[in-house]
């Protein structure tokens, strides 16, 4: 949430200048995979209002569902129509969709309608197809700021390059959006690798780690919550996946000085 507060604080005043009004109607479009709740957005907007003397006249929201793209698109269009009919056309779209088709739908709408938009979606420039070829003017009001969770996985590239690692197993849970990274994460790096979502259930996780070990993947990068990392490392210890043959790395969004993980005898 701190990322959202800081981003809105910096970017929102510029988008307000574009709308030529300090009284703004905000349309917030989210998807279920982000886990972002309305309280977080309210707190972030509250902070921005106090700091920048912005009046958010209304905050409308639409929750999209990646399993129902057609219905989700209709919900956004209907919400836009309702706001227009009521004389509350959106001065700004806050796009917190993560990635994929739903996120592209939002960007296509904001681009075609010319509505100032702040997006915190994941991916590099190639992954955001609808905004790939913005003009210089469009780039002033269609703004995307990549969240920390999108940049963290790039740590892998630095570790692999600096340590001359030739194989890697990348595991992740729902706290990281990694689906779109299959193509680009380790692109142009000579490393044999697999990228998989962590299986739930002890037997499934054991089978997953066993299959990776059987194809001689010995360097493990685990992206996840504290609970997920603990479960993976406990299973690795149980399977004796430790010693000089193996290397384990864990990456989490949780900030703490008291988290210690180890895979060893």
UniProtKB/TrEMBL annotation:
<protein>
    <recommendedName>
        <fullName>Receptor ligand binding region domain-containing protein</fullName>
    </recommendedName>
</protein>
<feature type="signal peptide">
    <location>
        <begin position="1"/>
        <end position="22"/>
    </location>
</feature>
<keyword id="KW-0472">Membrane</keyword>
<dbReference type="InterPro" id="IPR028082">
    <property type="entry name" value="Peripla_BP_I"/>
</dbReference>
<feature type="domain" description="Receptor ligand binding region">
    <location>
        <begin position="38"/>
        <end position="251"/>
    </location>
</feature>
<dbReference type="GO" id="GO:0016020">
    <property type="term" value="C:membrane"/>
</dbReference>
<keyword id="KW-0812">Transmembrane</keyword>
<keyword id="KW-1133">Transmembrane helix</keyword>
<dbReference type="InterPro" id="IPR001828">
    <property type="entry name" value="ANF_lig-bd_rcpt"/>
</dbReference>
<keyword id="KW-0732">Signal</keyword>
<dbReference type="Pfam" id="PF01094">
    <property type="entry name" value="ANF_receptor"/>
</dbReference>
């Amino acid at each position: 949430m701190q990322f959202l507060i800081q981003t809105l604080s910096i970017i929102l005043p510029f988008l307000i200048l574009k709308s030529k009004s300090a009284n703004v109607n905000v349309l917030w479009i989210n998807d279920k995979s982000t886990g972002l709740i309305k309280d977080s957005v309210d707190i972030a907007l509250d902070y921005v209002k106090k700091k920048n003397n912005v009046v958010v006249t209304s905050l409308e929201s639409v929750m999209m569902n990646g399993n129902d793209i057609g219905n989700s698109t209709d919900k956004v269009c209907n919400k836009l129509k309702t706001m227009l009919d009521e004389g509350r056309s959106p001065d700004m779209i806050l796009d917190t969709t993560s990635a994929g088709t739903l996120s592209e739908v939002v960007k296509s709408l904001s681009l075609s309608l010319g509505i100032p938009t702040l997006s915190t979606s994941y991916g590099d420039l190639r992954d955001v197809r609808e905004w790939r070829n913005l003009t210089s003017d469009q780039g002033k009001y269609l703004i995307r700021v990549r969240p920390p969770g999108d940049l963290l996985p790039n740590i892998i590239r630095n570790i692999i390059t600096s340590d001359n690692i030739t194989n890697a197993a990348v595991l992740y849970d729902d706290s990281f959006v990694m689906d779109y990274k299959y193509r680009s994460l380790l692109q142009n790096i000579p490393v044999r690798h697999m990228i998989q979502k962590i299986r739930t259930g002890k037997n499934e996780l054991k089978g997953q780690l066993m299959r990776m070990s059987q194809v001689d993947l010995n360097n493990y990068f685990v992206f996840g919550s504290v609970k997920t990392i603990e479960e993976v490392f406990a299973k690795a210890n149980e399977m004796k996946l430790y010693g000089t043959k193996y290397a384990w790395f864990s990456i989490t969004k949780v900030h703490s000085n008291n988290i210690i993980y180890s895979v060893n005898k």
